[in-house]
Design brief:
single chain; 43 residues; 0% strand; globular; 2 helices; mainly alpha
Length: 43
């Protein structure tokens, strides 16, 4: 996972978006969080 992917994930996670949009993206956001946490654990 590249730093660019991580950055875009973080933007999605912390961006303030309409609730309906967040519901659609919930799984993607969860995957992003998991990937970032895994990366942090590796470091």
């Amino acid at each position: 996972m590249s730093i660019f992917e991580i950055t875009s994930c973080l933007r999605k996670i912390y961006a303030i978006e309409p609730a309906h949009k967040l519901k659609i993206d919930q799984n993607k956001l969860q995957n992003c969080r998991s990937n970032i946490l895994n990366l942090v654990n590796v470091l």
